[in-house]
Amino acid sequence: MGVQQDHHDILETLQIDPEFLVQQEHRPTLKYNDYKTAVGQHHVVPVIDLSPLTSKKKKKKEKKSSSGLESSSALTQQEHDAHSSIHNLVEQVGKACEEWGFFQVINHGVSLSLLEELETNAQSFFALPLQEKAKVRRTFENSLGYYDREHTKNVRDWKEVFDFATSGMLQLPADVGSEGKQVISHTNQWPENPSTLREVCENWSKAVEGLAFELLGLISQSLGLPATYFHKFWEPDDSNFIRMNYYPKCPMPNLTLGVTRHKDAGCLTVLVQDEVGGLQVRCKNGEWIGIRPQRDAFVVNVGDLFQVWSNDRYKSVEHRVVVNDNKPRFSFPLFFNPSPRTNVAPLPELLLCGDQVPLYRPYNWGEFMKTKKGSNFKNMGVENLQIYHFAINRDEKRGQVGTPPIL
Ligand SMILES: O=C(O)CCC(=O)C(=O)O
Ligand SMILES: [Fe+2]
Question: Region Disordered: which residues (predicted)?
Answer without folding.
Answer: 55-83
